[in-house]
Amino acid sequence: MNREKCGVIGIYAFDENWNVSRFIYYGLVALQNRGQETCGMAVFDGKNMKVIKGKGLAENFFTQNSLDEAKGWAGIGHVSPLNPQFDENIQPVYVNDDVKVALGYNGKVLNYKELVEGKFKSEEDAVAVASLLAKELKHSDPLEAMESAMEKMRGAYSLVAFTDKGEMIVARDPKGVKPLVIGSFGFDHGAIASESAAIDVIGADLKADIKPGEIYVINQYTIERKSAFRDKERYCAFEYVYLCRPDSIINGKSVYEARMKIGEYLAEEFPVDADIVIGVPETAIPFAMAYSNATGIPIHMGFVRSGRGMRTAIRPTQFERLVGVQLKLNPIRQAIRGKRVVLIDDSVVRGTTTRNIVNMMRNRIGAKEVHVRIGSSRLISPCPFGVEVPEKDELIAAHLTEEEVSKVVGADTFAWLSLEGMIKAIGLPKDKLCMGCFTGEYPYLEEGI
Asked: Which of 6, 39, 244, 437 is the catalytic position?
């Protein structure tokens, strides 16, 4: 079961007078770009670990009463875009064995069914990882236990776990595919999150990225750190294009600056004679701003979002994807009618959303021309590590040329950003990026794992 782009957070206060539940709550709200279907936290008060989790948005699920009950000076939290079959598998998962472990993680451990046997065997990857860690903790200290577990795990992941002995265990896979950062309150490094924006929101200071293959173990007395494994970095390129918040910094690079560069390279590669530029909310707005700045074509506000954003590309049925577009984006007719429009979006998966937007602009509102520009390269392959890309036979980029896509979606012209342009915009060397969604070549899988 893919975990897609989950968000994790961990807070260790080092002072028993603190109550971190509200800090975790606000961190989860900040990470809801990474998941809006389930949320949860596990909080430790020095004696007991209280786990609260369920379905829905963090601000809807957690109440004043539940946060008051979840008192503790350390804990972890998790948000996910998927609903597991059983509520107990909502993260953080909790393994109640000789060593009690709560765990939340982002990514996919490919060999999770092989990790544990007997009573630990699970069809849920997070439960399998937590069970493996609990098993290793019976025989080793936390640093050695996590290192031993990572020797057995194959895949892309970042995780934060908590034990009933008051230990927070943090790890990132050897290639660093999934992001993970560490921050501090004062002198103590006690804040972990998938994105730096969550560190900012809870009032901590961003210190560094957790390095690929690095393990942290935090308790009341010490912070241990070990680079247990170090492989060639392969950071997920799609984080910069689509997944992360624009106010985050991951792997030392500003997501906002990368997205502005994407708009500049789109303008350089695919200029067009037009009257206005419009970005599809929310991810594509920086692309559109930079495209406008580079070309001199005025940028306009073309849509107003109705309610909370829905990722229509991953809605399970054609009807839901269609209705989702109509519900979430209401066009501003006066901005669009009679204009030659450059419509900029972050990605095209099946093409359904793009076709619906173009049809709405042309046939319902009366745009004179619509030229579609996409701020990512062609999505041609599903991701084994959890990025929300459907199977290849559903991906329009895997089967049609730009000219063919233009006809399918009803646009005058259509273009994806080149792979070279996307790499330059991110600002990291090609050999340090995982671009499997765009190339079909994935780390770990290349090694036969």
From this structure: 6
